[in-house]
Here is the input.
Amino acid sequence: MRIKTRLSLLFTLLVASILLVFASVIYWSSSKSREIEFYEELEKEAITKAKLFLEAQVKPTTLHKIYLNNSEIINEVEVAVYDYDFNLLYHDAVEIDRVKETKEMIHSIIQSGSLHYTQEDWQVIGMKYSFGDRNYIITATAYDEYGYTKLQNLFVTIVVLVVISLLVIYFVGLFFADKVLLPITKMNDEVNKITATNLDLRISTKKNKDELAALGDTFNEMLNRLENSFDSQKQFVSNISHELRTPLAAIIAELELALSKEQDKAYYVQTLQNALSDSQKIVRLSNSLLDFAKASYDPTEIVFKSVRVDEVIIDACQKLQRMNASYKFNFLIDESVSSEEMMIVKANPYLLEVALVNLLENACKFSEQNACTIQVLYLDYRLTIQVIDKGIGIAQEDLEHIFIPFYRGQNQNYKEGNGIGLPLTNKIINLHKGTLQVVSKVGEGTTFTIQL
Ligand code: ADP
Here is the structure.
C-alpha cells in the first residue's frame, strides 16, 4: 500500500474512532432524556385523568369515549385507578389492558411511592395519588412514538454526517499527503536520472530546512563523496596506464632501433641494459600495485597475528640491503621499551614489512649518505616507530600531497620512483588502526612516525 493511502487511512480511522465515541454519547444522552421526559409526561397524564375521574366525577363512559377517540389520532395514555386493596376503580381499556397489574405490584408502589419500567417499548409508571382522605394507586402506559421517531431521525442524521465526514477526511487526507510527499516523488525522479556517467547531477533542495531538505542535502553530500572517489579511481587507472606505458614505450623504441640496422656489441649491451632497467621499473610498479590492492581489502579478510616489531624491522632492513648494498641502517631501541613483550603488536607481518620497506627505502633514497635511523619507543602509551633521515627533505607545499597515489614531490628528480610508496604505507597503517605522521624540513631531513 502506498504511503499516502496508508497515511489517509490511518488519519480517517483515528477521526472515525473519535466521531464514533462522540456520536454514541450524543445518541445515548438523547435516548436517556427522551425516556425521562416521557415518564414525566405519563405522570402528568395519569394525574389529569385521576383528577377528572376522582375530583371532577366525570363518568367512566365519558372518559372511555375520550380515550377511544384520542387513540385513533394519537398514542393515548392508558390509565387505570386502583384502591390500596387492589380493587379496580377505573380502566381506560380493560379489553386491551397492556399493564397486567398484580397485588405485588400495587404493594410495591405503596412501599416505594412510584414505579417505572418498560415493556416492549411501552413505558409504564405506577404512582400513589391522594384525594380527600383516601389513597389511590394509578398506573399509566403509552408508546412514545414522537420521541422514538425523533431518536430515529437523530440516528440517521448522525450516520449520514459521520459517513460524509469520513469520506471528506479521507480525500482531504489524500490530497494533503500527496502535497507533503510531493518532494519525495520529485526526489525519486531526480535520483533515477543519476547514473555513473552523470554523477555531477544533484538533487534540488528547498531553502526551508525541513526533514526532506536535510535528507536531500545528505544524499547530495554522499554523491559528492562518490563523485570524488569515482574521479580518483579514474585518475588512478589513467596514472597506472601512463606509468606502465612510458617504460614499455621506451623498451619498444630501443629494441626497434637496435633491430633496424646492424650495430656493434657495445650498443646491443647498452640497449639490453636499458630494457632491463625499464622492465625492473614495470615489475616494481606492478608489485606496488599488487600490495596496494591487498591493503585495500576488507580488514576482516586480512589475517592479523601477534608480531614482534623489531623482527619485522630487521627483515625490512635485510631485504633493502639485498636490493641496494649501499643502504645503511641505524636501529635503536629506546629505554621506554623495557621488555620484549612491549615489542609485540597485532599486525599482518607481510603488510607491515611492506610499509617499513617503503619508509626505509625513501629515507635512504633521498639522503646523500643513503643512511637512516630507525627508533622504536613508547610514546603516549603507544608503540612508536620513527624513521629519521638527514636527507634533502620535503617542501612544505608537498607535505599535504605526498599521500595521494602517484604524487611525487618537487625533489622527484633526485631519485626515480612511481609515487605509490607513501599512499600504500598510509593505507597499511590505517588498516592496522595506527597513525602515520611526517615532519620534514628542506635540506635538514625527514622523520616519519608510525604509532600502532
Ligand atoms: P616515490 O618515492 O616513488 O616517488 P613515494 O610515494 O614513496 O613515491 O613518495 C612520494 C614523494 O614524497 C616522493 O616523490 C618524495 O618527493 C617525497 N618523499 C617521501 N619520502 C621522502 C624522504 N624521506 N625524503 C624526501 N622526500 C621524500
